[in-house]
């Protein structure tokens, strides 16, 4: 099977090597210890622009090329970053990958493109920094990992919390046992988001500046019924993963990290719904998933509703909006990006602080790994990020394979023996009441209980709709097999 989209032959990436594979070209993509690392950026939205500024400010790196199917996105990125000299611009990312003056790429495209952009970059002899979630679906993890290994590429995930020195110190402390065993972990993704606007009666026409077919790539062609094309693709299933797959991978990665990166959970389940907005989005704005990692019970909460309709502020749990609460026998850690603190058993006295730096050294860690060619030195290793992103996918598969259930049905049924989950339900019920929503009249979705293959992290067993777990790529943009 052709590893590249229709119309692009492998010879474009093999240069003059004939039948020789990229993996056998020792000088291809190798950067000397004193050389400036030349970067290309694939995807010029908000995150791409931010990384252009971050990497472009480093003395031993330069942004030499950018690519985006929307030329207006590239115009904005160049204007906002002010990078000089002006990088080369390519509407088609494949042209960027053909350049000899690009050593590594930053993949900041929409979620549905992360896997193919990473794989194709590896095949082209480029190292990769790929944003979270590194995968859009579970099936993409294996070929991404295989491509990085086969072509000897350095692939860093954009899980910059792993480079936060405060969290490194805090998690070492928690795993030391000084606070006793970890008995529970709670991940929190509370964002003060708002509705994306009413569902359109007629599909949105993409702008003239956009090559929409290339923007879609592997995603199925669905009518654009949201008011805004860019960014709000996060909230429809064929291109995004909701907030559990947008902000959530950062905190899910913290959960796996603090527990020592254990094997996948045996089961995953969720409850949630898109409450209050009645808009063009499909993904839940309240979503609670639960599972065990390394024998420790874990709960992950997404809450994107404001405290009340007229208050542009997110709710909080124990003072944390986006981060972790790690409960131990002798106290509790509360924090996230930028560090955190430990409280005693009473929940009030702060026993120790762990000030962090928000992972400011993550870009530097990537560049150093490129020079050393030591993938194990990466803080955001691809395999670990595949695992934590996979938790988001499993929660979403559970949700999408679920059925309606009122709050009372949840309370008296599935959650009756889980006081920790009932506490979540009670907090959400109080919040929904402030929105004049009765969850006994506007029901939740109770997700299907998923059994998970311990070796692969994929769903074990059959779903009524298998495309929920493994949606097919659009014709012309297959996942390569083999890579």
Structural summary, described in words:
- This protein has 483 residues and is an alpha/beta fold.
- The chain folds into 2 domains: 11-160, Rossmann fold (3-Layer(aba) Sandwich), CATH 3.40.50; 163-357 and 381-469, 2-Layer Sandwich (Dihydrodipicolinate Reductase, domain 2), CATH 3.30.360.
- Helix content is 28%, strand content 21%.
- It contains 14 helices and 20 strands.
- Strands 7, 8, 9, 10, 13, 14, 15, 16, 17, 18, 19 and 20 form a 12-stranded mixed sheet that branches. It has a 6-stranded parallel sheet with strand order 3-2-1-4-5-6, sandwiched between helices.
- A hairpin with a 2-residue loop joins strand 11 and strand 12.
- Helix 2 (46-56) runs parallel beside helix 3 (71-81) and helix 5 packs parallel to helix 6 (141-150).
What descriptors fit this protein?
globular; 483 residues; Rossmann fold; alpha/beta; disordered N terminus; Dihydrodipicolinate Reductase, domain 2; 21% strand; 28% helix
- So how many helices? 14
Q: What is the average per-residue confidence, as pLDDT, rounded to a whole number? A: 93
Q: What proportion of the residues form beta strands (DSSP E)?
A: 15-25%
- From the helix content, strand content and strand pairing, which structural class follows? alpha/beta
């Amino acid at each position: 099977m052709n590893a590249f989209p229709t119309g692009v032959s492998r010879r474009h990436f093999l240069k003059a090597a004939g039948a020789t594979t990229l993996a056998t070209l020792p000088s291809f993509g190798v950067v000397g210890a004193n050389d400036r690392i030349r970067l290309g950026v694939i995807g010029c939205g908000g995150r791409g622009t931010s990384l252009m500024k971050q990497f472009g400010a480093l003395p031993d790196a330069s942004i030499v090329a950018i690519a985006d199917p929307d030329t207006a996105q590239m115009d904005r990125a160049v204007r906002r970053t002010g990078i000089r000299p002006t990088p080369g611009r390519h509407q088609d990312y494949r042209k960027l990958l053909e350049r000899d003056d690009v050593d590594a790429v930053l993949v900041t495209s929409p979620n549905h493109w992360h896997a193919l952009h990473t794989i194709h970059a590896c095949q082209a002899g480029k190292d990769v920094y790929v944003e979270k979630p590194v995968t859009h679906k579970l099936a993409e993890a294996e070929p991404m990992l295989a491509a990085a290994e086969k072509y000897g590429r350095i692939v860093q995930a954009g899980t910059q919390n792993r480079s936060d020195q405060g969290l490194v110190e805090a998690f070492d402390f928690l795993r030391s046992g000084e606070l006793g065993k970890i008995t529970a972990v709670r991940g929190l993704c509370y964002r003060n988001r708002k509705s994306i606007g009413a569902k359109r009666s007629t599909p949105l026409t993409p702008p003239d500046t956009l090559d929409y077919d290339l923007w879609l790539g592997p995603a199925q062609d669905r009518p654009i019924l949201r008011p805004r094309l860019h960014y709000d693709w996060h909230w429809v299933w064929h291109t995004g993963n909701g907030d559990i797959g947008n902000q959530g991978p950062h905190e899910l990665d913290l959960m796996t990290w603090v527990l020592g990166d254990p094997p996948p959970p045996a089961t995953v389940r969720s409850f949630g719904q898109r409450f209050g907005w009645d808009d063009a989005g499909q993904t839940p704005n309240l979503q609670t998933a639960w599972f065990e990692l390394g024998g420790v019970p874990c709960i992950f909460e997404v809450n994107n509703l404001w405290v009340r309709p007229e208050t542009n502020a997110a709710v909080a749990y124990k003072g944390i909006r986006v981060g972790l609460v790690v409960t131990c026998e002798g106290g509790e850690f509360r924090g996230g990006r930028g560090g955190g603190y430990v409280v005693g058993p009473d929940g009030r006295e702060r026993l120790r602080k762990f000030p962090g730096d928000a992972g400011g050294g993550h870009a530097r860690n990537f560049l150093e790994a490129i020079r050393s060619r030591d993938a194990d030195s990466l803080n955001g290793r691809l395999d670990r990020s595949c695992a934590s992103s996979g938790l988001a996918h499993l929660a979403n598969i559970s949700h999408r394979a679920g059925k309606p259930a009122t709050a009372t049905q949840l309370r008296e049924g599935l959650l009756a023996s889980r006081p920790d989950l009932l506490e979540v339900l009670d907090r959400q019920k109080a919040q929904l009441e402030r929105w004049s929503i009765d969850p006994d009249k506007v029901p939740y979705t109770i997700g299907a209980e998923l059994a998970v293959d311990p070796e692969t992290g994929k769903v074990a067993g059959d779903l009524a709709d298998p495309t929920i777990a493994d949606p097919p790529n659009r014709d012309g943009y297959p996942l390569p097999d083999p890579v």
